[in-house]
Specification:
The protein contains nine helices and ten strands. The strands form three sheets. Strands 1, 2, 3, 7, 8 and 9 form a six-stranded parallel sheet that branches. A two-stranded antiparallel sheet has the order 4-10. The chain has two domains: 30 residues; 212 residues, Glycoside hydrolase/deacetylase (TIM Barrel), CATH 3.20.20.370. With 247 residues, the chain is α/β, with parallel strands linked by helices. The chain starts with a helix and ends with a strand. 43% of the residues lie in helices and 15% in strands.
Length: 247
């Protein structure tokens, strides 16, 4: 009996792990190209990483991060749900004016909206309408919420002239806001030449306290810069366009 239960538990764990790898892992390429790092060996002479931020704008934290980056002359990539852009459109336009790149993070950031290809299409269309209205141009970079890729999504994204983008989470528990030093220590340990590092300046599309992330970003930047790293945007790192067209 015990052996059967343990065997069943192991099977469930194996199936769950396999599903996560196929549909949500930042590293899996099973469904197509999903870059989490610049391909190839960039070499020590190119110690460059791309800092990215998901789920904003979320005030005051997005603006606090932007103020620090601007002070250091660093440009980053912000993957924003359309619903958040509608809440703080002036933050999105300010980021773009400062030279940061705005990427699409769909619209609602509600899990059930990303389980069918039809609803994903609608989410992208909704977010495009928001970006066109408030930003005056359409992002060419797309990061799916939770990195969730159901079959056919990556193909559809590319058919929309969008470049899907993955990355490496700065810390597995960052969304729960552990101490900044813990977040930064893990982010620095993960950094390699060509890395795309994911922080969260928001939470889903509802906002939330991200004060620990703000401080962790400062620590991470200071430590990486002290090790000879420089920072760039995802489009520059991957050699792809940042935007599709102006309206």
């Amino acid at each position: 009996m015990i052996r059967a239960v343990l065997g069943g538990t192991a099977l469930i764990a194996a199936v769950s792990g396999g599903c996560y790898w196929i549909f949500m892992s930042p590293y899996s390429q099973i469904q197509g190209e999903f870059p989490y790092r610049k391909a190839g060996d960039t070499g020590e002479e190119e110690k460059v990483v791309a800092l990215t931020f998901d789920d904003g704008p979320n005030e005051p934290y997005t603006s606090q991060i932007a103020a620090f980056l601007d002070e250091r002359g660093i440009k980053a990539t912000f993957f924003q749900p359309g619903a958040c852009v509608e809440r703080y459109p002036e933050v999105t336009t300010s980021l773009a004016r400062s030279g940061h790149v705005i990427g699409s993070h769909a619209y609602s950031h509600q899990f059930g909206r990303y389980l069918t290809l039809r609803s994903v299409r609608h989410e992208i269309e909704q977010s495009d309408a928001v970006f066109a209205r408030h930003l005056g141009m359409l992002p060419a970079l797309y990061r799916p919420p939770w990195l969730l890729r159901i079959p056919g999504v990556l193909e559809h994204v590319r058919n929309c002239s969008l470049q899907p983008v993955s990355g490496e989470f700065c810390h597995a528990l960052e969304v729960f806001q552990p101490r900044p030093a813990r977040i930064a220590r893990r982010a620095v340990a993960k950094a390699r030449p060509g890395s795309i590092i994911i922080f969260h300046d928001g939470f889903d599309a509802r906002g939330g306290d991200r004060s620990q992330t703000v401080e962790a970003v400062k620590l991470t930047v200071n430590r990486l810069a002290g090790s000879g790293y420089r920072f760039t945007t995802v489009d520059n790192l991957l050699g792809v366009p940042a935007y599709r067209r102006s309206t």
